[in-house]
Amino acid sequence: MRNLKTALLLGATLALGTTACTKPAENAVKPASPASAPAAAEKASPTLVTVNGKALNAQLLDTFLQAVTGKPAAEATTEQRDALLEQLVNMTLAAQAAEKDGLAATPDVQSRLDLLHMQILAEAASEKYVKSHPVSDDEVKAAYDSEVANMPKEYKARHILVETKEAADAIIKDLQAGGDFAKIAKAKSKDPGSAAKGGDLGWFSAQTMVKPFADALAKLEKGNTTTEPVQTQYGYHVIRLEDLRAPSAPAFEEVKDQVKMFAQRKKLQSYLDDLRKTAKIQKTG
User: Whole-prediction pTM value?
Assistant: First the structure.
């Protein structure tokens, strides 16, 4: 059975790649262009240290702290602030050396700087959109209901696995003549995992089975057996569907936070899709 929590978390992860965080060290090393650092913000943030004339201010340290720790800068200890300020000094020295050697003008470094610049702006734009377009409680509940409704059914089935179509055809004839499925499975099935249990596979989701098996199972009604052998890479199967049920889902409150994240990112993805519709995108390669 697919776990709803896992499905929601995966959906949230796959729904949007543009909000991936850049690496902390790369964020800190990337030099800010004059246009990207408003003069008012520079004046408002006190300088903590100067490195060869380059001022490193409190805002820069706070940004670095949050990137490294994943927590608000206000939660950092004095020891953390001191240690990361020393890292900023070292990175500044390394960046200055790179500038002196002309590395910023090389194609490789320039493309990496361009990519980081793009990632940071994309992340900022995404954060702004999320803040101004929060999902409502109704949207979260609707997302939960939709996910629950789309959860795959669970099946309880038996099967008999043989090597040839002729052997499977013969077994189907025996069953149609009143043969006992479990006894035939124990005697003739080549599946070591289920033969001793009369072919019993227990409860499972169709997604856990190879496609030809799952497709044949979906066509069966409860209590029926396939009338034609089902071929897979393992051989030929005779399948009987014994029961089916809807999977149990976790309570809404239990997964509400994950669902909210999924719904928010889905909304963000829709916004990006709309941007693509009005953009001029020309592929030349």
Answer: 0.56
